Structure formats: C-alpha cells, structure tokens
Amino acid sequence: MMTNWQTCSSDVKDFTFNIQKETQNILNNNLVGIYLHGSLAMGGFNPNKSDIDLLVVTKYPVNVEAKKELTQLFLNHSSQPYPVEISVLNESQLQTWQHPSPFDFHYGEDWREKYKNDFESFINEVPLTDPDLAAHITIMNHYGISLTGPPIDEIFPKIPQSDYKSSIVEDYNDCLENIEDNPVYCVLNLLRVYWYLKEEVISSKKEAGEWGLVALPEKFHPTIRKTVNEYKGVKEAHFNREELLAVRNYISDRVSRLND
C-alpha cells in the first residue's frame, strides 16, 4: 500500500523521528532544520521499497568528526528497516546557489560500500557536488515537509528551471542506458521527465505512471501497468527486453522532438 507522511504507519514515523533525533544530537547547535522530500512527502511511498528522503541544513560547514558520526549513524540504521537517502548542506551553499550544488555530507544505500571500503576518501574536507540536488530542492519547494526548523520557503532557494531540467535529464539519460537493469524505476522516471518536458508538470513516479496510462499509446499500457503495480507493491512484474526498449524508444523519440 502506498502512503504519504500523513497516512504512513506509526513504524515509518517512529523510524523517521528517531533518525531526526539522532541527527540533531550529532549536529547540535549547528543544525538549522531537517526536511522531508521524495515519495513520503509527495505520496507514493511504498514501505517495502521506497527510501526516506531527507535534506538537512546547517549554519556552518559540517566538520569531519560530525561527518564520521553521521556515517556511522546511517550505516547502522539505514535499511533497518527503511533505507535513508540524506544530504546535508550548509546555509552558504543554499544562499549562493550553483549547479551542480556542493554539499557537506551524503548517505544513500548506494554509498554504503563506498563508506565501508574507502571511508577516508569520502569523509574529509574535500567538497563534493551533486547534480541531483537541483531536482531534490525543486521537489522540496513544491511538496516538502519541515520536520524541524524554519519554513521551507525561508531556507531553500527557488531553483532555476534550467538547473532542474539539467538535473532530471541527467537521470533520464542514465535510465535510457539502464532500463533493462532497473525497469520499474527507469520506466517511471522516463515518464516523469517526459511529462515535465511536455507540460512542465512536476510529479511523483506514481503520478507519472498513471499519466503514462492515459498519455501514451495503448500498446504500451501493459508494460506501464506492470511497472505501476510493482512500484505500488501490488504484484511483482517480469519484463522482456523488447517491451522495455519499445517504451524507451517511444519516449526518447518524443523527448528529442520536444528538444528540437
């Protein structure tokens, strides 16, 4: 069953509040706020599949010791049972916006092995940038929820449309290449980007899938319906190469026409 922050289970809320509390304890007086975005804010959160997406804002850059504590926190608690994706930015990085945006700390399950195998390469003073932050902050400005801290519109900048587009197109291009490896995410993400480029609608993956069942030709509906149902946790789907490439090529062709 898909939920949002208002309708999710007490287990999801308790887990999120515990992450909030532990993060506050580590950052202490440097913390400005902790904010929820992604599927749990927008709707479409599947407790068996979805990440809990957080952006954390600090007054000043996060020091190495705090980064080490944050890393240990998320290595221990993320995916127990809900995976966490979190980025920490300081106020200066938001106030002097640039794309791709610098950040002080990031954790996601795809970073777990990096931290376990090469800890020192990522926990240091060397600044990193993330093109995805333009998309995350745009979603935050439209759908985000403040768990603690000032209102969202007082903290996060309005992201230029060109930066948001650049951010989602980078992920879109990855999905063109990797649709066979991750069909559910990629089909829904291709639809989400296509819808935005066509009509400037900012949507969740769930909403994009439902739009695809209306907007795309009927011959693609069985594939899209399978992705939506698996994303919702209704039924595990099996895909063949031909159907995935057919959807990919159709969307790629339409997006290319929009960009001409």
UniProtKB/TrEMBL annotation:
It comes from the Bacteria. InterPro entries: AadA/Aad9, AadA_C, NT_sf, Polymerase_NTP_transf_dom. Residues 31-87 form the Polymerase nucleotidyl transferase domain. One of its GO terms (biological process) is response to antibiotic. Residues 154-251 form the Adenylyltransferase AadA C-terminal domain. Keywords: Antibiotic resistance, ATP-binding, Nucleotide-binding, Nucleotidyltransferase, Transferase. The keyword Nucleotidyltransferase applies. Transmembrane segments: none annotated. Signal peptide: none annotated. One of its GO terms (molecular function) is ATP binding. It catalyses: spectinomycin + ATP = 9-O-adenylylspectinomycin + diphosphate. This is Spectinomycin 9-adenylyltransferase. The lineage of its organism: Bacteria, Bacillati, Bacillota, Bacilli, Bacillales.
